[in-house]
Amino acid sequence: MSAKVWLVGAGPGDPELLTLKAVRALREADVVLIDDLVNEAVLEHCPGARIIPVGKRGGCRSTPQAFIHRLMLRYARHGKCVVRLKGGDPCIFGRGGEEAQWLRERGVDVELVNGITAGLAGATQCDIPLTLRGVARGVTLVTAHTQDDSSLNWQALAQSGTTLVIYMGVAKLSEIREQLLAGGMATDTPVAMIENASLPHQRECRSVLTAMEDDAHSFELKSPAILVIGAVAACEEIKRSQPRFTRQLLQEDAFQCRS
Ligand code: SAH
């Protein structure tokens, strides 16, 4: 196996949500740099590899990105097969793109492996379809956290008609609420807040836009959590309160199966 860095998504937490390709990369790894939010249970696939924690759980507050870059480069140049294991998908708020570019510029062979991103997993685990015919024609993934001062176009988000999935939002609930309300989103827009998605200790809190901050506070919502904002977040309620809507969907589905 030639020297290579695999940038691998470990999925949201449930080890069964790991891809077969991620398992293959782990099996071939000599060195695994493991990030925060990766369930260490997945390391059963690389019993012989050297494991290097590079997140907050590694003992330091946060491993500098430049140090991680150099570490990957050093091992790759020593002919090692390196797996950089990240929570969720490596390219969704995971710096996968930057790391791949940095390594390739230095002549290192890089392969990216998808993982199931937390936003998609969290919604599905709570039976929330992020897109739903007649309800949501799209989905927008957004981070509430920025290192630079780049601000989001909240008004466009509020009026997009797509389901919003917000990452890193627990500490920003007040700002998210204010911005979406100011952008014209309806006060009673359904919200689902999903903590530790796909793990045995997953918790979910359902609310509406105006009440989400208070509800999250009473619920003691903690990171990691994602927010799903939009009509689909009350999907179960929609089905219960509008039997006609459910019947129509079921009939259409039956029709599609037959045709
Ligand atoms: N690359 C990751 C995201 C990293 S950013 C992915 O694709 O999932 C970290 C943020 O992801 C957290 O602040 C939280 O908003 C979200 N997150 C990660 N794992 C999560 C989980 N199991 N449950 C809920 N949110 C999670």
From TrEMBL:
Keyword S-adenosyl-L-methionine recorded: yes
MF (Gene Ontology): uroporphyrin-III C-methyltransferase activity
Pathway the protein acts in: Porphyrin-containing compound metabolism; siroheme biosynthesis; precorrin-2 from uroporphyrinogen III: step 1/1; Cofactor biosynthesis; adenosylcobalamin biosynthesis
Annotated ranges, domain Tetrapyrrole methylase: 4-209
Family matches, as InterPro entries: 4pyrrol_Mease, 4pyrrol_Methylase_sf, 4pyrrole_Mease_sub1, 4pyrrole_Mease_sub2, CobA/CysG_C, Siro_Cobalamin_biosynth, Uropor_MeTrfase_CS
UniProt similarity note: Belongs to the precorrin methyltransferase family.
Protein name: uroporphyrinogen-III C-methyltransferase
Taxonomic source organism: Pseudomonas nunensis
